[in-house]
Design goal:
about 120 residues, Leucine-rich repeat, LRR (right-handed beta-alpha superhelix), five-stranded parallel sheet
Length: about 120
């Protein structure tokens, strides 16, 4: 479980806890970590939706939330970062249209994996 008090680590630039047995949901407070440049919670047993406030990650470069049990629509979650380079969200249960993930024309994504979800159309 990721503690809801994670937002107290106000200078945290990287949160890497991949390949553990973490379960539960991502706390809403993680979106308050505006200095975050790398987030990796891949290969755990995390569930639930990705909080709306992830669009506050304005300087994040890498997000890997793959191989969990996340669900829901990701509409607009990643469109505020001009620095996002890698986005790996494969092997979850996300829904919605792929074209609504990225509404910011300034995205510089060079690697993306959306496979094995429940997305529709573009």
């Amino acid at each position: 479980m990721i503690p809801s008090t994670i937002n107290q680590l106000t200078s945290l630039g990287a949160f890497i806890v991949n390949d553990n047995m973490l379960s539960g949901t991502i706390p809403l407070s993680i979106g308050e970590l505006t200095k975050m440049v790398e987030l990796n919670v891949s290969n755990n047993i995390l569930t639930g939706i990705i909080p709306n406030n992830w669009n506050q990650f304005t300087i994040i470069k890498s997000i890997d939330i793959s191989n969990n049990k996340f669900n829901g629509n990701l509409n607009g979650r990643f469109n505020q970062s001009d620095y996002l380079i890698t986005l790996f969200i494969q092997n979850n249960q996300f829904t919605g249209r792929i074209d609504t993930l990225f509404s910011n024309n300034q995205l510089q994504i060079s690697s993306i994996d959306l496979s094995s979800n429940r997305f529709t159309g573009m």
